[in-house]
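Task 17 of the worksheet. Students: predict the tertiary structure of the chain below and write it out as structure tokens. Keep your answer in the requested format; marks are given for formatting as well as content.
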Amino acid sequence: MRISSLPRRCYATSKAATGSQLLLPTDPAEWAKLFKVVLAVNHRVSLRNPDTAAKIANGFVPEGSEGKVIIEAYPGPGQLTRALLNLPKERIRKIIVLENYGPYLEWLKPLQEADPRLVVLEKDGANWASYSDMAQLGVLDDVSKHPWDQGIHPHLQFISHLPSTVYSEQLTSQLFRSMPEGNWLFQYGRVPLNLILSDHLSRRIVSTADQHTTRCKLSIVAQATAECTTPLDWSETTPYSEHFHPIPSARAKAAELKKDSRAVGLPFCTMIAVPLEKQIIPKGQMDAWDFCLRRLYVKRSTELRKAISTLAPNAQILLQAVTNPDLPESERLDVTKKIKDMEAPDWAILLKAFDDWPFKPSDLTILEGYIGGRH
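Model answer:
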């Protein structure tokens, strides 16, 4: 179905409705007046263009979807929220919005009053406690758990704009790290992640071993836990200034870019991440993977046989385990590979040997109270 042929629900057909903030403006200058760039949200990017929002909504919840319950984090003033509600009604059963910035809530709460499918919670989408609070409030009581081996969850999905900061990488990393453990929303099954994110972060997530400039620990965890696809072509969301808010001045953008490749104003794109049915990281081993990735990736340009000693005293003994000639070739490692050239299956072989090692370090945990640590 072409996006132009989708039926549209009109939330503002009169002056009174427009005044009640049901319909967002389209003029970038008006957005700049209404949603000023202040410290609390200067790292946040929101969809502004309603046509782009409609395309993304249709890409995230396509024709054939039915009865979706969507958790939307970082919606901003809600251009995508409106586009989702404008989809054919049978596609969307409920949208639970997590937003805690006052000026954005002023444009979300009237929408909640106009459409009973929308639930607005004044919560931080990066805080684990927000999701526990949802359970206590009962807003997910009508969502059943779906067996992991029986396909993608038929109803529940997560949608989020990701802020343009290093904290978004931490947030994204924790989302992927939750998949093998069945934590967070993944306790309900294979819940897809629908993300609007910087091109910089997108490239880091999907980089392969031969893309050394963008390959990172996050790339490896993502490869081991999810299948990542792009529902919209990159050209549909570029240039940034035609689709998103805020639009920095050319001078501000140039100055910020000198300091940070994540600067607001650089290209944004879309991604869908679906948890793999067969996780490469076994349940209970995420801490070990985190530990080994952190220790070894600082030696990314070093061969594994030379870098492995950074794991722990006497860790060289693991080389014997991963090169044992009695093992099938698919279960052995080429220890002359550089760390940056190792794919997720290579890491799985190493981590199995590490997990079986009786003298591995006993404390591998990472303690974090936030999914991402900041708005």
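Marker's comment: The radius of gyration is 22 Å. Residues 1-19, 366-375 have pLDDT under 50 and may be disordered.
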